[in-house]
Specification:
Layout (H helix, E strand, L loop, with lengths): L2 E3 L3 H9 L8 E6 L8 H4 L7 H14 L11 H9 L7 E5 L2 H9 L7 E7 L20 E3 L6 H5 L2 E5 L2 E2 L4 E2 L6 H4 L2 E6 L4 H10 L4 H4 L3 H11 L5
Parallel strand pairs: 1-9
Antiparallel strand pairs: 2-4, 3-6, 4-9, 5-6, 7-8
Helix pairs in contact: 5-8
């Protein structure tokens, strides 16, 4: 997987526009660290099979959060997606169909240093009938399209990869180490010294905390940043 250096928003747009001339679905992910494209539940210890605990957590979420899950959907996958956006560790990894959103998530991370954006030509990985299946027993790691039933998913043009625990390797396998997925990935590195100028360019084009998190929290985060109050 080749790594390309990004120094400006214009440069990134040029690169993202050149992707997938024969692909209908290209997804993007921005993050502070290089590689290790694993979902939250597997990042600390990918060898651990968390399936039993994940099922128990979802059951407790449905019981304890019954009054909070209005509009989340009826299936286990619906609840996984909904809870993912509120911080629950799941076997979902966030992606977006908006390359500028991914670039913002990478450059706005509080970690210092270079940051990374990944693109994935996802047509061959898309699971179209996923809501009728048990998300914990899928045969392969797959791309899934969420229902647009909350403002954050809609604002962020959200997609996900749904990761399986591989019995063969006794682990969750990172996408960048998965031979079936790796060939569809590209990597972009943003050097630390260009991050701030890119964030300002993105804001000028309407990509910021208030547009990606369309609630009072997102607005407050944006105002803190805009008026130089953010730490």
């Amino acid at each position: 997987m080749q790594t390309k250096e990004i120094k400006s928003l214009v440069e990134f747009i040029r690169e993202s526009d050149s992707l997938g001339p024969f692909s209908d679905l290209v997804l993007f992910r921005g993050q502070a660290k290089q590689g290790n494209l694993l979902p939250g539940v597997a990042r600390k210890n990918p060898k651990r099979d968390t399936t039993k605990e994940e099922r128990q957590i979802l059951q407790q979420l449905a019981l304890q959060g019954a009054s909070l899950l209005n509009g989340a959907g009826e299936t286990e996958l619906d609840r996984l997606i909904y809870a993912q956006h509120y911080g629950l560790k799941t076997r979902l990894l966030d992606w977006t169909s908006n390359p500028l959103a991914a670039l913002w998530f990478a450059c706005s991370d509080r970690c210092e240093g270079d940051v990374y954006v990944y693109s994935m030509e996802a047509d061959d990985l898309l699971e179209k009938d996923v809501y009728s299946k048990d998300p914990f027993v899928i045969a392969k790691t797959r791309v899934i399209q969420p229902r647009m039933n909350n403002q954050r998913i809609t604002a962020q043009s959200g997609w996900f990869t749904l990761h399986r625990y591989s019995k063969t390797s006794s682990s969750f396998v990172a996408l960048d180490k998965n031979p079936q997925a790796r060939k569809y990935l590209s990597e972009y590195r943003v050097p630390a010294k260009f991050r701030l100028s890119i964030i300002h360019s993105l804001d000028r084009h309407g990509v910021n905390a208030s547009t990606l998190f369309p609630d009072i929290g997102g607005l407050c985060a944006h105002l803190n940043w805009r008026h130089r109050l953010a730490l």
